[in-house]
Structures are given as C-alpha cells and as structure tokens.
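If you are new to this repository, start here. Below is one unmodified record pulled from the training split, so you can see the exact layout before writing a loader.
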Amino acid sequence: MSRFSSLEFSNRDENQLGQEISAVKDEAFFLQEAQTSFEGGRFEQALRAYSKVLEFNPKNVSAWAGQVRMLIELGEFPEAKLWADKAIEKFPNEPELLATKAVALGRLGDTKGALAFSDASMEELGDSPYVWLARGDVLLARREDRADYCFQKAWALAPTDWFTHWLAARIYFYYHKFSISLQYAQKALNFNPGQSAAWLQVGRCQFELGLGTLAENSLTQAKQLDPHCE
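And here is the target side for that same chain:
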C-alpha cells in the first residue's frame, strides 16, 4: 500500500513540476531562447522562438525585428520583406525594423529602396550596432566603398562583442568577400573562442579560400563545441 502511495505522490510532484516549468516559459524565456539560438547559428529555431514571443506580446518590437532578421539569415528575402512590412505597419518609426527592410530590399536587388529605408532608420536616431551593420549590408549590395565605415561604426558601439563581429563576417561572406569575412570571423573568435558558430564561420571562409586543412580543423572545433552543429 505504501508503495502505491509513494508512486501517487511522485506523479503529483512531477505534474506540479511540469506545470511550474511550463509557467516560466513566458515572453522573457522565449526571447532568451531566440537570442541563444541566433548566437548558435540555429536560425530556424530562433525564428520559432521569436514567433512564440509575439504570441505572448504582439508589441515586442525586438521579436518582430528578430523574425525578419532570421528570415534574412535563412535566405528567405521575399518573406523577410513581407514580415518587415507587417511590422512597420505596427511600428513605423522603429529604426531596427526599418533597417531589416533595408537589408531585405538590398538582397532582393532593390538597392534604391534599400538605401531609402536605411536612411530612414538612421533618421529615427537609430544608433545600434545592427542599424550600422544593416547600412553596411545595403552599401555592399550597392557596391559602394563606404561600407567598411559602417562596420567600423558598429564595432565602435560594441568593440569587444564577438556577436557583432560574427554578424559582420556573415554579411561579408554573403557578398563573397571571403578574405574580409575571415578577418572578422577570427576577431569574433578572439573575443569568444568557445563559440561554435564563430568556428563554423571561420571554417566556411577557409574552405572558400582553398585552405582545406585549416577549414577541416576549424569545422572539427565547431563540431566539438556543438555536436548538433550542421
């Protein structure tokens, strides 16, 4: 009899624990999960987490911007533009949302529209690293030499942030500037050598530059740090 009583209480405790765990999965939880997934290069997971944030709070501007940024990272540029439009309807003066649309337009080939939205993001006193990274992205799409200045401005706002350098490396990589991408990916590693996504980016650059052995070593490091790394 006591054995069944113990099992009953055990099940009750487990159910209560499950409810407590479920209860803490709120807006803040999913926002943190989104950022962690983003930093790990798991863009689809981050996209789902940002969507969850908006279920809790449709007015979370960071989640709206995050969704668009993940679609851009996944190469879904028409979808990114669509969701940027939806977000800007709700928050027409948010610098980072305007910046996300600028990037989406630039990568779709509408460089004139991209520059206009980038200008608008800066006119709204957008002075975050991402607004400057987005500006650099747009200028690279327009093949303008001033892009590097924008990346320098982003780093001035976050000089020791591995994440900002990693994002810059990914942007340069997209535009097939592999040597520059490698430089910034290595800077990201200098600030956070335990970050799998940074090792992965270094390895991708090395591979594109024909540095096969170095690339293999970098990708091995990425896999050791994150066994689920794709």
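Two things worth knowing about this chain: DSSP finds 13 helices and no strands in the chain. Residues 126 and 188 are 24 Å apart (CA to CA).
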